[in-house]
Design a protein that fits this description.
By secondary structure, the protein is mainly alpha-helical. α5 runs antiparallel to α8 (about 185-209). It has one domain (about 5-30, about 40-209). It contains eight helices and no strands. The protein is globular and about 50 Å long.
Length: about 210
């Protein structure tokens, strides 16, 4: 991919992430708008740090970017754009009080499956890849929405975790593109294997409980 094409990809991704933030804030409960700038504990900072400090969330979101970069073409940006879009919907679902079963297991399986996809350099058809990403994004978004304390600013929290997700995706793309140039992509596959092992570890708890 040429340099000007990369610039176009990143501009598109940034534009879509901006739209995600706007959509999420618009759909958040109306009571949130009065506290957007309050800086309450559990607002933007909590939303931003949650995906970064949660290893399962972090690995899954990195894997989305790495897998997209590994497959190349439109997948470089369609996968990382789809994830936060659907995750935002999942977050609203979680805040609404809807009960989604097996959330922890769904998150763990997202790490496992995405890690395996990278490890085996799976060139999935785009619609299958997007479907997988969307399903996993619902679980991640739901977990964020449910964990939102009632007494804080939900709009800022939502913006925080969507922005953090975008940054992690971009980092994953960068890692995927870099490692894809080394040893014919074997380093990228090895990293995918390590992510899959972590996903298996995360899944043992929900599976055994």
């Amino acid at each position: 991919m040429k340099s000007h094409e990369y610039k176009g990809v990143y501009r598109t991704a940034i534009s879509w992430r901006f739209l995600v933030v706007v959509a999420f804030v618009s759909l958040a409960p109306e009571s949130a708008s009065a506290h957007v700038e309050s800086g309450a504990l559990g607002g933007f900072q909590s939303g931003f740090t949650h995906p970064i400090l949660g290893m399962d969330h972090l690995l899954a979101m990195l894997a989305v970017g790495i897998w997209g970069a590994q497959m190349g073409g439109r997948n470089v940006w369609t996968l990382p754009v789809t994830f936060p879009l659907v995750m935002a919907a999942g977050g609203i679902l979680g805040m609404s009080g809807f009960v989604l079963p097996h959330v922890e297991l769904g998150i763990a399986l997202s790490v496992l499956v995405l890690g395996l996809a990278i490890a085996f350099a799976w060139k999935a058809p785009e619609w299958i890849a997007l479907l997988l990403i969307a399903v996993f994004a619902v679980f991640h978004g739901y977990a964020h929405g449910v964990e939102l304390p009632l007494a804080v600013d939900p709009a800022s929290y939502a913006i925080g975790f969507v922005v953090a997700t975008g940054i992690i995706h971009v980092a994953g793309i960068g890692i995927g593109l870099l490692l894809g140039l080394l040893l014919k992509g074997r380093l990228s596959q090895a990293l995918g294997g390590a992510i899959a092992v972590a996903g298996l570890y995360f899944a043992t708890g929900p599976l055994l409980s």
